[in-house]
């Protein structure tokens, strides 16, 4: 069965996703056209940051832009620490929930004009958000436009070897579906390849609760297409 893809900004306004965020619980899935399901961790997203999240928050510096902030747990936690943080998300319900719980957020795509472009010190792409738009290279290039010259991008990869661009729909497992939209998933090796191809270099990698994370910086003086093997061998520090 095939579906007609729509802009992700419309897809994430679909009822299954909105209903899950309002209740704070699933089940909720990304449904691929071949019937494959990827569970979405709604309960974790709607809770306070967990220990793995905290390893990311400790690495944030300066003003932080959370790309695809969802219900805003990271933005809210950063605000509570006195850190300037802004979330952007295409879901109105995600933005409302972020704002209700004490965070700042805009209902906007990362590819739309955003405040402070080129001046953010840290940008976040967590919880599978490297998949936004189904084009990792375009997303990484856009992220480079958002951070300052010495800014960083903290990215979460899939915990297994994968490099795919697919069409998916949000589904609640009970027969309700949103419209189709493009998505991608990247494991560690694929993320490093796309990072190098778009002028980023990995300066740190770590794993927490089975979730692989990377700190990326612009590869000034290094050039695009650096040494994947060198970055893949980065020594992982403690959390």
Largest sheet: 7 strands, mixed
What's the total helix number? 9
Structural class: alpha/beta
Beta strands, count:
11
Oligomer: single chain
Shape descriptor reads: globular
Helix content: 25-40%
Strand order of the largest sheet: 5-4-3-6-7-11-10
Strand content: 25-35%
The run of helices and strands is HHEEHHEHEHEEHEEEHEEH
- Give the end-to-end Cα distance, rounded to a whole number of Å: 44 Å
**Uncertain parts:** 1-6, 221-237
Average pLDDT for all residues: 89
Question: Rg from C-alpha positions?
Answer: 17 Å
Pfam families: Methyltransf_25 (PF13649)
Protein name: Methyltransferase domain-containing protein
Keywords: Methyltransferase, Transferase
GO molecular function: methyltransferase activity
Task: Walk me through this protein's architecture.
The chain is α/β, with parallel strands linked by helices. Helix content is 28%, strand content 28%. It contains 9 helices and 11 strands. It starts with 7 loop residues before the first helix and ends in a 7-residue tail after the last helix.
List keywords for this structure.
239 residues, single chain, four-stranded antiparallel sheet, transferase, alpha/beta, methyltransferase, seven-stranded mixed sheet, 28% helix, disordered C terminus, Methyltransf_25
